[in-house]
Structures are given as C-alpha cells and as structure tokens.
Amino acid sequence: MLILNKTAGVFSNPSKRNMYEFLRSFNFHPGKLFLHKLVLGIETSCDDTAAAVVDETGNVLGEAIHSQTEVHLKTGGIIPPVAQQLHRENIQRIVQEALSASKVSPSELSAIATTIKPGLALSLGVGLSFSLQLVDQLKKPFIPIHHMEAHALTIRLTNKVEFPFLVLLISGGHCLLALVRGVSDFLLLGKSLDIAPGDMLDKMIMQKEKEEGIEKGQILSSAADIAAAVQHTVACHIAKRTHRAILFCKQRDLLCQSNAVLVASGGVASNLHIRKALEIVTDATQCTLLCPPPRLCTDNGIMIAWNGVERLRAGLGILHSTEGIRYEPKCPLGADISKEVGEAAIKVPRLKMKI
C-alpha cells in the first residue's frame, strides 16, 4: 500500500498545469440547473480505463471506456506495468469524454468516486492520482470505492432491490458470496480458496498446452471439450455453494423466507450457462434471481459512480480531506462469517442440473 505523498510522486499524471488546461477545456453553463446530485465515477482497478457521470436518481448522463484487451491478448495475460502505462495514456481522455457526453462541467459535480481497492496496484495508483488532482483543483468531496461493493450494488441502479439481499460476485479475479445488509454493510459467507473461475480456466488450458506440446498461436485439439466440461463443472459447483448460502441465510432469518433476492454480478455472471444453473437453485428455494445487464457486469465507470451516489445519499465514506488516502491491492469485503457458515454444516438437497 502507498500513502498519498508516495502515490502523488510516483503517479504524477497529469501535471497540475495539464490538469488546469484539462478543466479549462470544458464549456461552463452558468444558466444550467441540475436538480439532482451528480457523481463522476473513475475505474482503473485492472485493465479497463472507465469513467461515467450518474445522477442520484440513477440516470447515466455520460460514460466512456477504453479496453486494453487487444494489447493483453498478444502477451497472453495482463502485464501490470503495461496496464499502468495504458491507463496513464487514456485516463484524461476517458474522463473528458464521459463529462462531455454528460454535458456536465466539472464544477457542477457533487463528488468524485474512484476505485481504490482491490485490484492491480499499478492500475489503482493511476486512477487515484488523477482523481486526487481533480479533487484538489475542484475542491469537491472524494468517495473511495471498494470494487466489489460497486459490483454488488449495481443491481440497485437497474432494479428496485431493497436490503437485505444475497450477492454472488464472480469474475476472472474474484468469487464470493455475501449478504448485503446496507450500502457498506456486508457479511462475507464464503469465497474461493485460491483462484477464481476465470483464472481456473486459464490454468487448465495452460496445463493441457504443456501436455500436447502446443506452440504459441495454436489451438488445443480438445478446446471445445475443455470449455464445455469446465463451464458445466463450475456452474454446478457455484450453484451448490449458492444453494447452501441461501439455506443458511433463511435458517438464520437473514433473508426473507419468501421473495428473497439473489443477485449475480461480475464479469462471469454474464455466462448464461451459469445463470441457468442459478435459476434452478432459486426456483427450488423460492428466490428471485437478478443480474445486471452484461455490459454492467464487467468493469465500468457507471457502477463506480452509482456506488458513489449510494454512499452520498447514505452519508457514508465521503471525504472532504484526502490526506493519507491509500489504495489497497488486496482488501476483504465486509465481516467474514464463513467459519460460522461451515460450522452450520447445512446439508444441501441434490438438484437435477438440466442446463
């Protein structure tokens, strides 16, 4: 972890002069009246540079994103220094595009929300450094965002979901189940022991490449079989763990006995095979399965801005001084009660996974 003075020294992009010129590039609208609070969200936790402006009613006024996928595909994975450089090169343009599309000048913002945990250290540092300079110039409140909290709360932007609800967060780097009791009130029921679903698929593939002696650029003869087998196995495994989490929450009266909500979010939650497996579980437990649209399941600036709106409305984690602010590459989500879940030893009924 780096504290503010180190962060500012290492990631001094853009310079104060450049930031001043950046802000001067916007057209101000003195006669324009915004009836709602406006939050700018900035996301650079991994390999996507994203920004968005969202108002307190959930209207997305403007957004922009730069994907690094093509670059990292050529190297076979994300190389942190490369991701850092690409964030540096694109963050000012992406923020400018989001603000321009929203027709909101920086001075009209109510706050700036930025992902500061968890993620790649070098990537997080770029977003934090840029945001701190912007906050300093505009004299606006700063709202630090937990990346997984943002994924969990995205559903409240698209659907009317009340607390509490159960959330399954699945992505290339994370896999966890948590009970969401409030904007920043989470109970962690369980998480992957070592690797997440997306990461696991990569390691299976690499093992088979070694076995078959595959050269760079060639495709495994068993690629389709591996994809199908892994997808089905992962879907069934996640469904069973989610089933146990629902039963635990209902047993402890943490969720409604009827009309309970399960939210699946994160990049892997876009997988329709996994969604169908989860539907089998929710049908069997009288729950409702809700998922954000696929474009909001992957990393984006909208979810960060919305998390900022949620915290602004609740009066939680709004900083008027950024002295000593840190980014945290590794950071848990909520209070961990996974041991209690394990000790409950709940037997999960066998379900037919006809997917």
- In round numbers, the mean pLDDT is 90
Q: What is the terminal separation in angstroms?
A: 44 Å
Number of helices: 13
- Net shape: globular
Biggest sheet, open or closed, and with what strands and sense? 6 strands, mixed
Helix fraction by DSSP (H/I, runs of at least 4): 40-55%
Low-confidence stretches: 1-12
Gyration radius over CA:
21 Å
Tell me the strand percentage band. 15-25%
Question: What is the number of beta strands?
Answer: 11
Q: Strand order of the main beta sheet, please?
A: 10-9-6-7-8-11
Output the helix-strand order. Answer: HHEEEHHEHEHHEEEHHEHEHHEH
Class of secondary structure makeup: alpha/beta
What would your notes on this structure say?
With 355 residues, the chain is of the alpha/beta class. It is built from 13 helices and eleven strands. The protein has helices at residues 4-10, 16-24, 69-75, 80-102, 121-138, 147-153, 155-158, 197-212, 223-251, 272-284, 294-297, 301-314, 338-344; strands at 38-43, 48-55, 60-67, 111-117, 142-146, 165-170, 175-182, 185-191, 260-265, 287-290, 335-336. Strands 10-9-6-7-8-11 form a six-stranded mixed sheet, sandwiched between helices. A five-stranded mixed sheet has the order 3-2-1-4-5, sandwiched between helices. A hairpin with a 2-residue loop joins strand 7 (175-182) and strand 8 (185-191). Helix 9 (223-251) packs parallel to helix 10 (272-284).
